[in-house]
Structure formats: structure tokens, C-alpha cells
Amino acid sequence: MSKKAVVILSGGLDSTTCMGIAQNEGYECYPITFDYGQRHKHEVEHAKQVAAFYKAPQHRIVDLTFLGQIGGSALTDASIDVPDYSGSEDIPVTYVPARNMIFLSLAAAYAEVVGAEVIYIGVSAVDYSGYPDCRPEFIQSMTQTINLATRAGVNEGNLKILAPLTHLSKAETIKLGLELNVPYQLTTSCYRGDEVACGTCDSCQFRLKGFEEAGAKDPIVYR
Questions:
Q1: What is the C-alpha separation between 50 and 83, in angstroms, rounded?
Q2: Distance between CA 8 and CA 178 in Å, rounded?
Q3: Nearest-CA neighbor of 5 among 38, 28, 39?
Q4: Per-residue model confidence (pLDDT) at position 157
Q5: What would the pLDDT profile of 165-220 be if each residue is shown by its tens digit?
Q6: Cβ(173)–Cβ(138) under 8 Å?
Q7: What percent of the chain has pLDDT over 90?
Q8: Among 16, 70, 67, which Cα is nearest to 43's?
Q9: What is the per-residue pLDDT across 146-155, written as a single tens digit (0 to 9) for each?
Q10: Spatial separation of the C-alpha atoms in residues 49 and 173, rounded to whole Å
Q11: Phi-psi region of 35 (alpha: psi -120 to 50; beta: other; left: phi over 0)
């Protein structure tokens, strides 16, 4: 029986790198993608393309559009503008309240259903926008929580959350992905959600800087 991994797949650069890492580690990948009312909703279509590229046996797309009713983020509330990158260390308006906590809870449920032993998530504590749910201490806490709250955790006690990009810069992530032939041409990162990336939001700026420092050309188109 092959070992299985659930991969939280947004269709972006980091989560797609995690797909490449998981496959390289010998896991059969079961991606899960969340439509949470984000303005860059077309990333869901990119996630479908990535899942197909890796020949995932099953790809779950979960409707969480109700998060738009909660709001509180420029990504889920159309009345809040997505800002250009400023370099500020404050938690930005693109932070979605409790997003990764919700995602990991549902990924843990999916892992139980398919019999996966690990959950991959593409968070980084180095090149990120100051989101509290990207920190290592959060991942450690959630690992403990899901093992307390799930049948798999109670029976085996070994359901793991793997965040292999935690201590990597964006450039280091990209270099690793290129070594693994990760299909970055299928990914999207722009927060503004247009077909052509803006190049000026936090996510675009981190991505462009990462490719430049990695000495590689970003294969997607920018405005």
C-alpha cells in the first residue's frame, strides 16, 4: 500500500512546490483546494491544472465561500482594496482571519477519510506577509490539536503536519522547486485576481523578488 499525503493546494507557488516535494518523497498526493470567496478565485482553476499535472487520484475542492460573509480581509471583502507592497511589518489587510486554522482542520478530516498520514502546507516564516498562522509555533500547536481531535490521532497518534518551506526564503523555495521540475507556469500568486498578475501586491513582489534572487525567470505574465 502506498503512503498518502494530503496537500493543501491553492494553485500558488508555495503549495505547488509542496506537491512536488510530497511526490518526490514518495507520497501519493491527495490535494485539497478551498474556494473561500477570495477575489483571486481563478487560483482554483490553477490548482486543478496542478493536480492534473501530478496525476492526483482525487482532488477535493471545498466550498468555503461563507468566509466572505465574515469578511475582515482585502481578499474576501470587495470594499477593502488590495494594497501595493509597502514593506511594513504590520499584519496586512490581506490576512484572512483564522484561514490556515480552518484549512488545516478540514485537511485533517480529509486525511482521515483517505488514510493519509501527513498533511503538507506551504507556509513560510521567512518570506511572508506577517501572517500569524504561518509561524512554526502555530503549526506545532495545530499538530497537537488534530491528534487530540481525530480518530486517526487517537488510534495512531501520528498524523503529521509538514511545512517544508517554513525556514526557506522565497528564492530557496523556487530553487528547490526548479530542481523538482515544479510546474510554476501553471501557478498564480497575484492577490488582485486579474488574469494577468499585477506585479505590485505583496504576493507578486515576494514572488518576483524570489525568482530574481534564484537567478531564474518567472514563467507567468505580469501587467
A1: 28
A2: 20
A3: 28
A4: 67
A5: 999 999 999 999 999 999 999 999 999 988 899 999 999 999 999 999 999 999 99
A6: no
A7: 78
A8: 16
A9: 999 998 888 8
A10: 20
A11: beta
Amino acid 212 reads E
In the numeric block, the cell 486579474 is attached to: 194
In whole angstroms, give the CA distance from residue 195 to residue 40. Answer: 9
> What secondary structure letter does DSSP report for 154?
H
Domain boundaries, the chain: 4-214
Residue 125: per-residue pLDDT: 80
Q: Beta partners for 197?
A: 222
pLDDT in tens, 77-123: 989 999 998 877 788 898 899 999 999 999 999 999 999 999 999 99
Pick the CATH number of 4-214 from 1.20.1250.20, 1.20.1050.80, 3.40.50.720, 3.40.50.620: 3.40.50.620
